[in-house]
Amino acid sequence: MRENRSHLSQHARETFTVLIGLFMAAAIVPALQGRILVPLFAIGTMGALVLALEWHKAKPPPEEWLEIGDGQWRYRDEAGRSVNLPAYWLRFELERRSAADCRLVFHHRTQRFEVGQCLNLDERREIAPILARALAASNKR
User: Fold this and answer.
1) Under 8 Å CB-to-CB from 58, ≥6 apart: which residues?
2) How far apart (Å, rounded) are the C-alpha atoms in residues 7 and 30?
3) Following DSSP, what letter does each residue of the chain receive, concatenated?
4) How far apart are alpha carbons 126 and 120 in whole angstroms?
């Protein structure tokens, strides 16, 4: 599983450039009145926005690896921690905390493993029945 991250298109970058220009133009009047902190704040804010967008683009998307089959459940997270358990003792649950939050959780005796943390809400809802069917099919073998 990998985060579905779309990068800014050239059109979006041009739009941000226009917005930065308009924001700076709006800061000219206070600068002419002697309020020099307003344009400095505008430049700092726009610089921080551009840096954040570039940092997000350069950072690889988070990913997780999950395999259910042959009576085994294998999971590896972004940090490299891996778990290999027999699927027989596993129980899958879609925890719905609110309308805007749900979690994909596998329970194994006293352990709890949350998967799909890199997925958005809609993707979690879509993949939940797939995971439940895969676990059920693995336990039937």
Assistant:
1) none
2) 35
3) -B---PPPPHHHHHHHHHHHHHHHHHTHHHHHTT-THHHHHHHHHHHHHHHHHHHHHHSPPPB-EEEEETTEEEEE-TTS-EEEEEGGGEEEEEEEEETTEEEEEEEETTEEEEE-TTS-HHHHHHHHHHHHHHHHHHHH-
4) 10
State the sign of the Cα–Cα–Cα–Cα dihedral 51, 57, 58, 59. Answer: positive
CB atoms within 10 A of CB 73: 26
Query: 25: which 2 tokens?
Result: 């133009």
- Do residues 72 and 9 touch, judged by C-beta distance below 8 A? no
pLDDT in tens, 88-103: 888 999 888 888 888 9
What the block records as the tokens of 112 is 């709890």
Asked whether the whole model's pTM tops 0.70, one would answer: no
